From TrEMBL:
This is CDGSH iron-sulfur domain-containing protein. InterPro entries: FeS-contain_CDGSH-typ, MitoNEET_CISD. Signal peptide: none annotated. It comes from Brevibacillus ruminantium. The lineage of its organism: Bacteria, Bacillati, Bacillota, Bacilli, Bacillales. Residues 27-62 form the Iron-binding zinc finger CDGSH type domain. Pfam families: zf-CDGSH. Keywords: 2Fe-2S, Iron, Iron-sulfur, Metal-binding.
Length: 68
């Protein structure tokens, strides 16, 4: 992993978009295969968790948090 800054964007009514060089690990330290850009599920209904598969669109997931 490099020292470059990673960006995580919380998309309105959708996923968390991760951009940058990051290691994504599970609870026991196993590494997920990821590229330099990928999306994480926020709706909890994805069939490929922790990644987004677009299910949020089908189920009408709504969430648009803003930083304060």
């Amino acid at each position: 992993m490099t020292d470059e800054k990673v960006t995580m964007k919380v998309n309105d009514n959708g996923s968390i978009r991760v951009t940058g060089d990051v290691d994504l690990v599970d609870a026991v330290g196993g590494r997920f295969q990821v590229g330099s850009t990928f999306s994480l599920c926020r709706c909890g209904q994805s069939g490929i968790k922790p990644f987004c598969d677009g299910t949020h669109k089908k189920i009408g997931f709504e969430s648009a948090p803003r930083a304060t």
